[in-house]
Design brief:
195 residues, mainly alpha, Growth Hormone, Chain: A, 6 helices, 87% helix, 0% strand
């Protein structure tokens, strides 16, 4: 999930400034910087305030927020609306923070203690690849397509990744719950057999 969420972060930091100046025709540097800053400020505040959410709740909430975030990004460009872009920044920042915090916590919960450092390192590598590879892909697409079309493809890919993460996460969560129930039943049987 973090790959898709970090792709939003990469889009906001690398491509939104160009979108604002070229597509929305706003050249005020304060506005450009303000929109990008808003995205990361919301991400930071959301991460700080979401500590009481369970890992799975945070992760799935972030994944669900990805859909309106990318839809708002596309609509902001189509309708040339800075307001929609600001709302996309708020929703996208929340999506990134919740997805990252929740999925990192899940990784820590499910990783064997002796392999946790390696697993978390691989997880972080995926996050940073998510931050850069999709943006490079959009850049390559704009060499053959209009920027708006490349951004729409980006939005569709990120939404598909979020959907895949939700479906995979639900399956994993269900498997984890079944395993916990099975272990509980086994533990009760062992306790009864001792009596």
């Amino acid at each position: 999930m973090a790959f898709a969420a970090f792709a939003l972060g990469g889009f906001f930091s690398a491509l939104v400034p160009g979108l604002i100046t070229k597509e929305l025709h706003i050249s005020n540097v304060a506005v450009v910087g303000g929109v990008v800053t808003l995205f990361f400020t919301v991400a930071g505040v959301t991460a700080a305030l979401s500590g009481k959410l369970t890992s799975w709740t945070a992760m799935f909430s972030g994944a669900v927020c990805v859909f309106p975030a990318v839809a708002l990004l596309v609509c902001a460009e189509v309708f040339r609306s800075i307001t929609l872009l600001i709302v996309a920044g708020v929703v996208g920042g929340a999506a990134m923070a919740l997805s990252y915090r929740g999925s990192l916590q899940v990784v820590n919960e499910v990783s064997p203690q002796e392999k946790r450092a390696e697993v978390v390192s691989a997880y972080l590598l995926m996050c940073y690849l998510g931050n850069s590879l999709p943006v490079l892909g959009v850049g390559l697409l704009t060499t053959i397509l209009e920027p708006q079309r490349a951004h729409e493809i980006f939005a569709a890919v990120v939404a598909a990744l979020a959907l895949a993460a939700i479906l995979t996460g639900k399956t994993s969560k269900k498997r984890q719950q079944q395993q916990a129930r099975s272990e509980s039943v086994q533990h009760r049987r062992q306790s009864l057999s001792r009596v």
